[in-house]
Structure formats: structure tokens, C-alpha cells
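Structural prep section.
Before we set up the soaks we want a predicted structure of the protein with flavin-adenine dinucleotide in place, mainly to decide which crystallisation condition to try first. Input record follows.
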Amino acid sequence: MNIAVVGAGISGLAAARTLAQRGLKPVVLESGSGPGGRCTTQQIGPYKFDSGATSIAPRGRSLEKAMLEELSQEGLRQVERPIWSMAFGRVSPGDAAKMAISRYVYEQGIVQLPKLLAQGLDVRYGVKVETLAKEESGYLVNGEPFDAVVLSAPLPENAELLAMVGEGWRIGGVRYRSCLSVLLGYEAAFDAPYHALIDPEQRNPVIWVSAESVKTTGRAPEGHSSFVVQMGSRFSTEHFQDSDYEISREAKIMMGRLFGKAFEDPAAMQVRRWLHSQPEISTSFENANRNATSLILAGDALAGPRVELAYEVGVRAAEYLLQK
Ligand SMILES: Cc1cc2nc3c(=O)[nH]c(=O)nc-3n(C[C@H](O)[C@H](O)[C@H](O)COP(=O)(O)OP(=O)(O)OC[C@H]3O[C@@H](n4cnc5c(N)ncnc54)[C@H](O)[C@@H]3O)c2cc1C
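Run finished without errors. Recording the C-alpha cells verbatim:
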């Protein structure tokens, strides 16, 4: 069976890897220049940032076995320090017990996971799938014939492709939120008993601060520090088109308030805009694929906004095709 997997994010790679493990040779088509999608790492000067997912908590799901047993564990680190709270701008341990699950990162950057998953697969980068057509015995993907297709991009990004084949997918209720991530590097050392801060109310402009250089080593030179500041859903939606300067202002104010004057002026700054950041309303694999034949939907919209769930959905999509 000749299968196209659209998207080399965690879900698409999980699907392709599962198919390859059963002796098939899927082709992964990815519009970007590398694997990972929202599981990605960015370098700005001497600073390194996980600008989408900031850590992976496999919670006993199938990704755990893949990460801890099957794939190379070089650079794989358990995040030792917990997540604390920044309720009303005040830092405290918060509900530490609730946050006490095993989280992992890679010293090379979180993008190491998709890089490992992509090893040995036929992944074609820089190929955006723009046309999908139904044939008697399969599908034409950008004009190339395949027996089956797995679509793994965020569902709103698949909508046009799905409309081209006019199938009755039950995905109407799925909704993604947007997120602006502000990447900040400082010529100032930083240490703390936590690796990240969360706003438990999720109402302020800044809802998450990941101290990248505390989380793991290799994220900033000696005496420097790096942070990813995530803006809340409302702020991100309202300011999505603003300039980097405007967007980063709130983040910089918060950094100064939390950590003092040395953190008001970063040496490096970049804004990463995630239009479809995480599904706030998801559906189930069964629901989305209830009429499926050989065009299967995957991706985190069918499970929830987590790397390990995206992986699981990819495996499910592959198993579904294999059963057929
Ligand atoms: C800011 C942010 C913070 C997050 N924090 C965490 C966290 O700490 N922990 C956690 O577990 N999860 C987190 N997540 C969620 C997690 O990153 C996602 O749930 C997961 O990575 C989704 O994987 P996916 O494969 O479903 O989709 P994606 O990663 O979006 O992959 C889809 C791929 O399809 C490609 N594509 C799209 N359209 C086409 C096309 N037409 N043709 C070819 N290719 C196409 C895209 O380029 C992309 O590579 C976060 C996400 C964001 C954005």
C-alpha cells in the first residue's frame, strides 16, 4: 500500500513510523524545511529556545516507550525542577503536587524528538500539499497517486483539502487558540528553584514563563539566560498582527516585575506567532474518522493539546489503515 502522510509534526511522524515498522514505505510530505511542526527549537545568536512545546510529559502513553526505550536517549533529560505559580505576579510553589509529573526535554532542543522519529523515513521537506482529489482506488496528492492518505495538520489548515474531496467529516466543533511566544535572551545569569511559572488564572497577558536555561543546559552561554514567555489566548488573538515590539512590551514588563531590572532589556528577542497553537475544543479519533475509508485524519485536534496525545493519534491512524 502506497501511503502519503501530510505533515511531519509529531502526529504525522508517529503515523509514518508505525506504518514503516509494519513494513510499509509511507511518504511524508512536509511544507516546512524540517520536522516537528509545533514541537520545535529556535536558535537566536547564542540562545536556544523551545518555542512551541516547552517539555514533554508522556504520562505512560506509547510515546514514553518510544522515547525511553526505542529512540536514542542522547541528550534526553528529565526536567528536575518543578513548575511554580505566578498568581497575581507573585512567585510561589503553588500546587506543586499537581505539577509533579515526569517531564522531559532534549539538550539539543525539543526538536530532537521529531528528528529522531523522522530517521529512516521518506520525508520530503518543502512540499506543501495544495491539492487533493479522489480517484477510484485512492487519492491524488498534489497530482501524485496514493492508495491512502493521512492528514495530520491542525484541522483548520486541512479544511481546504477536505473540501476538495467533499467528504462529510465531523470536525465542525474543533477550535484552536492562538498563542504568541516571546523568546528572550539576557546577558544576565538566572537561577531559580523552578523551571517554569504558570499563571493559574490564565487571565493575565502573560500565562507561562519557561526559564529555558534553568530547564536544561546548553540554552545560553555561561552568565546569560534565556526564557520563553507565552501570552494568553485573549491577548494573543487581539494582538496577533501587532509588531514584535508591541507584543514583546508586555512580556518585558512582566519579566522586570518578576525578576528585577536586569530582565527589563533583553539582548535577544523574537516573537513566534502560533495561529493554531493548541486545540481548545478537540474531538475524538473515532468521531473525526467515522466515515473514513482511506483518507484518515490525525493530529492533536483528535485528542488534546499535548505532544504525547498527538503521537498517540498518529499511531491510531496508522493502525486504522493497517486493519483496513
Ligand atoms: C506555544 C505552544 C506551547 C505548547 N506547549 C506544549 C507543552 O509544553 N507540552 C506538550 O505536550 N504540548 C505542548 N504544545 C502542543 C504540542 O506542541 C502539539 O499538541 C503537538 O506538537 C501537535 O503535533 P501535530 O503533529 O498534531 O501537529 P503539528 O506539530 O502542527 O504538525 C503538523 C505539520 O503539518 C505541516 N503542514 C501543515 N499543512 C501542510 C500542508 N498542506 N502540506 C504539507 N505539510 C503541512 C506543518 O508544517 C507541521 O509541520 C504546545 C504548542 C504550542 C504552539
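Observations: Residues 6-12, 29-32, 37-39, 52-56, 128-129, 152-154, 157, 179, 181, 230, 274, 277-278, 299-300, 305-307, 310 surround flavin-adenine dinucleotide (CB under 6 Å).
Flagged for discussion at group meeting.
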